[in-house]
Amino acid sequence: MTLITGDRVGVNAEGRPVSVQQAEGRKNIPVRMRYANGHSYAVPLDAQRLIVRGKLDERLFDVTLLSGPEYRTSQHAGLKVIVNFAGARPAAKAEVRGAGSTVVRRTFPRLNAEAVSIPQDDASEIWEAITDKAASGSPWTT
């Protein structure tokens, strides 16, 4: 499965990670495997910092959840996330929309957020757009 960072995680039948293939340009970013409450997580170091700060939802790295049949089926059409632009600079929306082949599926004007999907091969591009320090967007799973 492909994480929002573009890193790919191989899982066994129980949803436990068995391999990690880091995305291009991310070879030096360690991915920590963690097990909690019956779930397995594969969290890259740069993502962990954002999770701790409350900018990123840890469920984006819950490989037990993401390897479930309902998620795997929905991910064939691309990764789906909600990006909250609260506190982001005006150009942040354009950067997210311009990341790879991002498609805006729905907008939430009152929340200043958008539900987007992006092909798995373009995941690292949306990761760069949402983690740009100036953009400050915060994604949540859908």
Q: Can you describe this structure?
A:
It is a single chain. This protein has one domain. It has a four-stranded antiparallel sheet, with helices on one face. The protein has helices at residues 45-52, 63-66, 69-75, 91-97, 123-131; strands at residues 8-11, 17-21, 31-36, 39-44, 79-84, 103-108, 113-118, 138-141. The chain is globular, with a radius of gyration of 14 Å. Mean pLDDT is 85; it is low at 133-137. It is built from five helices and eight strands. The protein is of the alpha+beta class.
Question: How would you briefly describe this protein structure?
Answer:
It is built from 5 helices and 8 strands, in the order ββββαααβαββαβ. The protein is of the alpha+beta class and 142 residues long.
Note the main attributes of this structure.
5 helices; globular; alpha+beta; four-stranded antiparallel β-sheet; 142 residues
- Tell me the distance between the termini: 16 Å
Secondary-structure class: alpha+beta
Strand fraction equals 25-35%
Number of helices: 5
Helix share of residues?
A: 10-25%
Q: SSE string, helix = H, strand = E?
A: EEEEHHHEHEEHE
Say how many strands there are: 8
Main beta-sheet strand count, sense and barrel state: 4 strands, antiparallel
- Computed over alpha carbons, the radius of gyration is 14 Å
Name the poorly predicted regions: 133-137
CA-based shape: globular
Summed up, the domain count is: 1
The averaged pLDDT comes out at: 85
Q: Which strand order spans the largest sheet, edge to edge or round the barrel?
A: 6-7-5-8
Oligomerization category of the chains in this entry: single chain
